[in-house]
Design a protein that fits this description.
247 residues; alpha/beta; 7-stranded parallel β-sheet; 7 strands; 39% helix
């Protein structure tokens, strides 16, 4: 029996990358999962081999009000939500600051607000926001993206304080450099992947499964006393300095 047997989950941005792996990890642990993204075709590809009768919900979370609409659709489809993974997001896009803020911050806020009270009424729940190490440090090329992730970290702490007494835990996961579609083009730049790996304590980029396993842990009762935290999963990239062979 999986650690999430009988739980009902909603994962946004579940059609690829970290979101897809989160959906798979939760389903493998016994949860019934509603997968949300813009592409029904991509969602169906993910859902076709998931156990526990998954549900596909199309949504464009960059649109105002889409988070609340998605939450209502998920509750109707599953009968309730115990686990919410706010993974949908986008990196920096020139001239699209408002859209990035809308997708990366406002949509998770809307979706969580629409679901967290029914979690409280059910007496339990786990919300997991997908943050980034860019939220904790300045990245010259990612000013808006980093700001949205810093806002998610703050939201995590505030919601944890607000809803903890109702049995709802709220945490965030902050990935470092992970091999996903988001980095597909960048990793083709000669020397870039290797150069960045040299600044990671473990000496390599991460895999999506190394993020989804932490998400599955936070969703489970094994993390029953963990709330209000942003868990950094970056192989020792942010906040770690390698001094080479001096010692």
């Amino acid at each position: 029996m999986g650690t999430l047997e009988g739980r009902l989950a909603l994962v946004t941005g579940a059609s690829r990358g970290i979101g897809e792996h989160c959906a798979r990890a939760l389903a493998e642990q016994g949860a019934r999962v509603a997968l949300a993204a813009r592409s029904e075709q991509d969602l169906s590809r993910v859902a076709e081999d998931l156990p526990n009768d998954p549900v596909v919900l199309t949504a464009d979370l960059a649109q105002p009000g889409a988070g609340g609409e998605l939450a209502a659709a998920a509750v109707e489809a599953l009968g309730g939500i115990d686990i919410l993974v706010n993974n949908a997001g986008a990196s920096e896009i020139k001239g699209q600051d408002e859209m990035i803020m809308r997708l990366n911050y406002h949509a998770p806020l809307e979706t969580t607000k629409a679901l967290i009270r029914q979690m409280a009424e059910r007496g339990h729940g786990s919300v997991i926001h997908m943050s980034s190490i860019a939220g904790a440090t300045g990245v010259a090329e990612l000013p808006t993206y980093g700001a949205t992730k810093a806002a998610l970290d703050s939201l995590t702490r505030s919601q944890a304080a607000q809803f903890g007494k109702h049995g709802v835990r709220v945490n965030a996961v902050a990935p470092g450099l992970i091999i996903t579609e988001m980095w597909e083009e960048g990793r083709k730049t000669p020397g870039l992947a290797e150069g960045l790996a040299g600044h990671i304590a473990l000496g390599r980029w991460g895999e999506p499964e190394e993020i989804s396993s932490v998400v599955a842990f936070l969703a489970s009762d094994a993390a029953s006393y963990v709330t209000g935290q942003t868990i950094v999963v970056d192989g020792g990239f942010h906040g770690v300095t390698a001094w080479g062979d001096y010692f």
